[in-house]
Amino acid sequence: MVQVRPVLFILGLVLGAFALAMLVPMVFDLDHGHPDWRAFAAGAGVTLFAAGLLVLGGWSGQRPRFTAREGFLLTGMSWATVSAFGSIPLMLGELGLSFGDAFFETASGLTTTGATLIVGLDKVSRGLLLWRAMLQGVGGIGIIVMVVALFPFLRVGGMQLFRSEFSEKLDKPLPRAAQIAGVTIVAYACLLLACLASYWALGMSLFDAATHAMTTVATAGFANYDESFAAFRSPALEWTAVLFMALSGLPLFLYVRLARSEWRHVLRDTQIRWFLATTGAAVAAIALWLWLGRDLPAGDALRLAAFNVVSLATTTGYASADYTQWGSFAAIVFLALMFVGGCTGSTAGAVKVLRFEIMAKLAGGALRRLVQRHGVQRVLYNGRPLGEDVIASIMVFGFVYFVSFAALALALGAFGLDFTTAVSGAASAVGNIGPGLGEIIGPAGNYAPLPEGAKWLLALGMIMGRLEFMAVLVLFTRRFWQG
């Protein structure tokens, strides 16, 4: 049977750390004389009290036994519970959001989605802006630790490849999951500091540089201004953001290998080549479309195409222009990019390039079998044959992903949303992207006008998409609870 008490104990520790994190924006607002510091103080107090109750109730006097089953339960409960308690400052502060709206915004931050319903970001307290960025920074780190430690047991296709590919090369006397989680967090932190320094050097204030670095490296997309990244009016900053969004869409362990001079492993990684080729082709297509079809100067066309394509391809969700005004061809390209995502082992969401690569190889093998019916067809990844369990898990994940997307789009349509809003909103939520298409939730709009029920569905889609569905769906099976 599932042991609930250890789960509650660990959940209490997680909430305790989360309560302490609220003190950072509280001190920031207190120092700037903004009354929202009281909202953060109240949120920290309530969260810390709940954390204490969970720790006391879950402690059994001995070291908790923790298996993969308890890990699944903790994962699902953590993301939902932390999103609920993280909503408190948004409800008690000057914004005065409803619980549904505050939960949506917090879940969007923690899942690194970047969809927002706050209007007038230019006028809200800096403590709140810092809190939104911290949510996405913590969410980016949290997903790394979770997928490395937990997802290989779930076999959702991809993470077990990532783990087996890299953990064999580490020789430190630590558990393999701890090794990989530790070095990827170090790589994440180094990338974050490099991004912060670059933004600051190119003219951002230190505050903007720090908050936007957190949301860039987490491929998250919350900005401090309603105009998103376009508010800076700086081509140099946009090209820098393109660079760091692309770097964050690559496997974080790649940088560990580069530091260890393992260039051969980096150069042979086919998913990196697929990611760069797919993104590069989309940038070239949109740039040509803007240059030849929309009469933009070649330099501006390339910059706008590169920024917005890389932003969507890595599921970051920044915008430097309203690309919904670029015509139907651009809209179709951007909608397709919402399903691709970055590389496995990065903070990016969506299906991931690796899965598309393997599905393409499976399709090619099926075509070859039509000609060579008795030939032996093997699916290779980086020169190694894939096991049947990995192939099956990738196919199952693809099926669940697209069924969930279709179900969410239908549910949003039932709330009276138009086709473009419903479809792009569903794709954005399950892919953890942020902006959708159309006038309402496109890059020039936000999610505030949507019905309350639609916001709850989208928040659920964000969490399920971030956990890659299976980690949530397994909780609703009878065998999970029976043992």
Descriptors:
483 residues
Gross morphology is globular
**Cα separation of the termini:** 5 Å
Structural class: mainly alpha
Strand percentage: under 5%
Radius of gyration: 22 Å
Write structural notes for this entry.
The protein is mostly helical. The chain has a domain at 269-482. The protein contains 23 helices and two strands. It has helices spanning 4-31, 37-58, 68-85, 88-92, 99-110, 126-149, 151-154, 159-167, 176-201, 206-217, 235-248, 253-259, 263-267, 270-293, 298-313, 328-340, 353-371, 388-414, 419-430, 438-441, 452-466, 470-473, 478-482; strands at residues 380-381, 384-385. The chain has a two-stranded antiparallel sheet with strand order 1-2. A hairpin with a 2-residue loop joins strand 1 and strand 2. Helix 6 packs parallel to helix 10 (206-217). The relative contact order is 0.11. The model is unreliable at 150-175 (pLDDT under 50).
Lay out the secondary structure.
Layout (H helix, E strand, L loop, with lengths): L3 H28 L5 H22 L9 H18 L2 H5 L6 H12 L15 H24 L1 H4 L4 H9 L8 H26 L4 H12 L17 H14 L4 H7 L3 H5 L2 H24 L4 H16 L14 H13 L12 H19 L8 E2 L2 E2 L2 H27 L4 H12 L7 H4 L10 H15 L3 H4 L4 H5 L1
Antiparallel strand pairs: 1-2
Overview in brief:
The chain is mainly alpha-helical and 483 residues long. It is built from 23 helices and 2 strands. It starts with a helix and ends with a helix.
